[in-house]
Amino acid sequence: MATDFSLSVNLVDIPGRVIYPATLRVAEGRVAAIEAMPGAAGPDATLPYALPGFVDAHVHVESSLLVPSEFARLALPHGTVATVSDPHEIGNVLGVAGVQYMLDNAATVPFKFCFGAPSCVPATPFETAGAEITATDIEQLFQNPKIGYLAELMNWPGVLNRDPLVMDKIDLALRYGRPVDGHAPGLRGPDAERYA
C-alpha cells in the first residue's frame, strides 16, 4: 500500500472556521503538508471534503456488544477515528485476560484505541464479579504501551479516605507516567478538590 500521495480536497479548517480548496500531501502514512490552492475563493464543488477525525474521549466498547474491530468498522464511517476506552466491563468478567483480548482484537484494525487499565474491578466491594484486577495486575498491564492510563477511578471514597488498595493503583499510574482518569459524579467543594 502506497503511503506517499497527494489529494485535492476542500479542507475544513476547524480553528480558522473556513473551508478552502487545498492539496493534502501525505508522506509515510502521515499528513506532511497542507497547501492552499492559489486563487481559490471558496469551496470547490468538485472536490471531496477533508476534516479532522473525531476522538470519542470516553467509551466502554463492550457496551456496544461489539468486539473492538467491529466497533471500529461501524464508527469510522461516521468520522470517529479513535477512542479512549475503559475496558472495565470485560475486566469484571474475565480480568486481565479480557483486557488482553480487547487489545489483541483492536490490533487487527487501523483504528486508534487507547485502552486504560481498569481501576475498579469489581466496581464495588459489594459486587460479585467474575474477576478482580489488583495493583499487581495493573502493573502488568502498564508494561504494555497500548495501556495509556489508569481508567475511570470510580471509587472516590477510597481516594478521599486514602484506601491503600486504591492509592497503590494511583501510585503505579504516576510511577509509570500514566494519567489517572477521574470519575466522581456529584462530588463538590473541598471533597472535589481533594479528589482531584
Helix/strand layout:
Layout: E1 5-13, E2 18-27, E3 30-36, E4 49-50, E5 54-59, H1 68-75, E6 80-85, H2 88-94, H3 96-106, E7 112-118, H4 135-142, E8 147-153, H5 156-160, H6 164-175, E9 180-182, H7 189-195
Parallel strand pairs: 1-4, 5-6, 6-7, 7-8, 8-9
Antiparallel strand pairs: 1-2, 2-3
Helix pairs in contact: 2-3, 4-6
Notable traits:
196 residues, TIM Barrel, 5-stranded parallel beta sheet, alpha/beta
Task: Summarize the entry for a quick read.
The protein is an alpha/beta fold and 196 residues long. The protein has helices spanning 68-75, 88-94, 96-106, 135-142, 156-160, 164-175, 189-195, and strands at 5-13, 18-27, 30-36, 49-50, 54-59, 80-85, 112-118, 147-153, 180-182.
Report on this structure.
The protein is of the alpha/beta class and 196 residues long. The protein has 2 domains: 5-47, no CATH class; 54-185, Metal-dependent hydrolases (TIM Barrel, Alpha-Beta Barrel). 30% of the residues lie in helices and 29% in strands. The chain has helices at residues 68-75, 88-94, 96-106, 135-142, 156-160, 164-175, 189-195; strands spanning 5-13, 18-27, 30-36, 49-50, 54-59, 80-85, 112-118, 147-153, 180-182. The strands form 2 sheets. Strands 5-6-7-8-9 form a 5-stranded parallel sheet. A hairpin with a 4-residue loop joins strand 1 (5-13) and strand 2. Helix 2 (88-94) crosses helix 3 (96-106) and helix 4 packs parallel to helix 6 (164-175). It is elongated and about 65 Å long.
